[in-house]
Amino acid sequence: MSNTRGQPTVGQTGGTGQEYAAGYGTGEPQARYAEAPPSVGIAAGTVLAGILMMVEGAWDFLEGLSVNLNRAFFVPVTNVYPYHWDVQSWGWTHLALGAVVFAAGVCVLLGMAWARVVGVFLAVLSAVASFMFLPYYPVWSIILVAIDVYIIWALVAQGRRRRV
Fold first, then answer.
1. Contact partners, residue 134, CB within 8 Å, separation at least 6
2. Under DSSP, is residue 95 helix (H, G, I), strand (E, B) or coil?
3. What is the per-residue pLDDT across 57-100, written as a single tens digit (0 to 9) for each?
4. How many C-beta neighbours within 10 Å does residue 53 have?
5. Which of 1, 109, 123, 130 has the fewest C-beta atoms lying within 10 Å of its C-beta?
6. If you compute the radius of gyration of the chain from its CA atoms, what whole number of angstroms results?
7. For residue 85, how far is the Cα from the chain centroid?
């Protein structure tokens, strides 16, 4: 089937064996993609990474706030941890890091290219901070490190697309 100009419609070949892309009436062949073309929004993994960055930023902020408000609750599990730091210092660190990670997550959702790079850097910082906070809150710190690893993967792997 062809349109009024005698050109093949979307999904049909024009004698050269290549498909024509939707929305283009010029008759020039377009490359086929296994997924949507790169110019169509941001990938679903990046959207999830942005949402997780916002959620993790809020969790870190609230964790830092709770550490600063109730320092007596956060007692280290072990006294021989080599990365010993004052609990209040950890509270301020998580408070500030949480606010910055939340803001970067919003920028990732808005599709800003620089936000992906900043997001990877902040996820690494957050993973290191959560790792160093292990003696104070072990299970929660491991969960946050796992979320950070996913965020890093999703932000780095977003640019890969496979051509057919």
1. 81, 141, 142
2. helix
3. 999 999 889 888 887 776 666 677 776 677 788 889 999 999 99
4. 29
5. 1
6. 24
7. 29
On the CB side of 53, CA atoms within 13 Å amount to 34
Longest dimension (CA), the chain: 80
Q: Which helix (H) or strand (E) holds 98?
A: helix 87-109
The ranges assigned to domains in the chain are 1-32, 44-157
Residue bearing tokens 């109730």:
70
Q: Can you give the pLDDT at residue 20?
A: 46
What's the predicted TM-score (pTM) here? 0.67
Closest CA to 50 of 125, 1, 123: 123
Low-confidence ranges of the chain (pLDDT < 70): 1-42, 74-78, 83-84, 158-164
Residue with tokens 């800003």: 112
